[in-house]
Amino acid sequence: MGSLANQSTILLTDWPTRIQERNAPASDPLARLGLSPRPDHVARTYAQRCWCAAWGRRASLRHPNSGKAFMMNRNPFLPAARHPAAVSFPVEGELPSLGGATTWLNSPPISAADLRGNVVLINFWTYTCINWLRSLPYVRAWAEKYRDHGVVVIGVHTPEFSFEHDLENVSRAARDLRVSYPIAIDNDYVIWRAFYNHYWPALYFVDAQGRIRHHHFGEGAYEQSEIILQHLLAEAGIGGIGDELVSVDAQGVEAAADWGDLKSPENYLGHARTEHFASPGGAALGTRRVYAAPARLSLNRWALSGDWTGEREAIVLNTANGRIASCFHSRDVHLVMGPPARGTPVRFRVFLDGQAPGAAHGIDVDEQGNGMVTESRLYQLIRQPKPIADRQFEIEFLDVGVRAFAFTFG
Fold it and tell me: pLDDT digits over 157-168, tens only?
């Protein structure tokens, strides 16, 4: 990765000028910024979950949203973005068809032609992605603020895990997360491929003439993104908005990560993509096996104890009292997991260095570490106060059948 100033410049001026160019590895801006895509794993989509801000993971940029003045100081191009005559954003391509949606939520079907005359923000998401969850307060605030000023926000839900294809799961998540803007359900990845998109979350900014003018991958750059929306509205001759930016009070899983203390990367638990598994004998795919965990794990290693079956995208508990252990360094610990079936909850207990978490418990756990898996989603298990250090996390499941998919941290 280059210097901080260079990173900001790349995001605003060095993106490919045509949407088709995003498929060419040599010109992929994420590669130039040090984010490597994962191997193909979802219906031939070459997808990757962005687990950090596309330009915000370096130690020198721990607080990418510390205020408008910070953004302006880091990149003098941004003040000019408020004045349409001063700068123009290159046309990256036409807005692709949204006709590949299998269904819509919160709206009847919307076509690209229906959107002409409006500034459009397309947001690719999948409901268990922690990076999308942390960006959601801003997208939700923009949808509310600019709804009556010609901006249409459309969430394109493209699933990562198999349970995210389930419309009931997505509908519940949208209600719980207060996503009220139109949602295109992209279960067949048709819209994803039409955009040549590779990332969750991803934002595409479309002008009133139906042309893509900018995009952003990952978390962060919220001030920049809103300024671009205001710029496109001004280009369309829509005024009377002012240049104030939204302020959000993100809580729970939506709160920004503590980047300064985040030293643990996302890790999948299914056999296809897991790393750093420490139980003796390694993991077995598709085979029931009794595992044991080392007494102590090194940082970012994880292990199982009890009777588990390892599947491609998840691990499944066969008998009660199985455990997952992980050594981590972060404020927050999340685990994507689900029950064996709707209406069949799984009780669990969380431990931090062998003790109940107390004040370090997450929103889905009480101080004694008790919680319950009732639906397939991301669960926040730990949110600990400072000082942050290497800690050993364990979760014991008191009932059979839980499916665990991925750890994320914050």
Answer: 999 999 999 999
